[in-house]
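Why does residue order matter? Because the sequence determines the fold. Keep that principle in mind as you read this record.
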Amino acid sequence: MEALILKFEEFLESGDELMKRGQYSDAHSKYFEALRTLAAFLAYRDTGMLVEPAKLRGFLGSYPEIAELLEVHSTAHGSEREARSLRESLERLRGMMNLPSSEG
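Structure:
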């Protein structure tokens, strides 16, 4: 489970670096991978099973906001606005899930 949290953090850090460089589409992709990793973490925490990404939505009944974000951002084009919006959502979700913050 700790490995999933570390992977989540790695995707966020990579996305943040790409945002600084103005590579918004690539940053959005990293943030989307962070979202999928968070979904996998929650599915594992709730069921004890590692779930492949294509099947995650079926395990997110208790997390409608995450399921909705997966749906919305799976078809996003990766604009600056979309990347920033997803990053903000990830930070808010991290706080709600009691995951460590990137600030500390």
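The CA atoms of residues 15 and 30 lie 5 Å apart.
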